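Q: Fold this one first, please.
A: Sequence and structure below.
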Amino acid sequence: MKIRVQSIHFTADSKLLDFIQKKVDKLDQFFDQIISGEVYLKLENVDSEANKISEIKLNVPGDVLFAKEQCKSFEEATDLAIESLRKQITKHKDKTRAKASEHKAILSESETEDF
């Protein structure tokens, strides 16, 4: 899957970019129809230690999934955002399957009524 990573107000090193790519690629195990993704890494100017924000947006057929997490490190924030997206993907797949089976049931009813 193709993802685009944007680091805002800093330059991300290659280790962080590789880490994010590997984590996002694991989402393909749960749903192989992910079209693309965007990751935004932000440094917030606050005095607390948890000033790193990871926002991930995934484009899937018919929907856009989004997760945002703020932690002490970008790796931790990315892990939490990926876990949130994994749950969203599972729900999205369940809804899609339910609609498909409902549609098939309606089609099979209309076919039997015609005869």
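Q: Good. Now the second chain.
A: Here it is, same layout.
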Amino acid sequence: MQTGDPVIESLVDEFDFLGDWEERYRYLIEMGRALEPLKPDEHCDANKVQGCVSQVWLVLGKDGEGKLLIRGDSDAHIVKGLVALLIRLYAGRSPAEATAIDAREVLARIGLGEHLSPQRSNGLASMVARIRSWAGEG
């Protein structure tokens, strides 16, 4: 699923195009700003991702064909960008496609792994685990 996947290749190309990590962080923040806001009642405990230092909410659903619908938010700019990145990576896929994605490999290809603090890495892993677990339930 990894190599040749159009969504993954597009993300890798976008981040490769950017120069230094300041530009990449700015791009990540812009991705987060572009997210559709959650409704106030969606900022609830049921949608909150445990294991993140920042507050993170993921609203998970499936469309009529069983493809993943994901929306999210965070109270931290960079983390909100990471939420947007994961939405691009996982949304619109079948549960089998989603669980086949090795997010660590994708993030390594983008170069994120080495530039995130340990807390952000742990939070990102918690978000990925929540999405993969939920996808696997279907």
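Q: Anything worth noting on the second one?
A: The mean pLDDT is 89.
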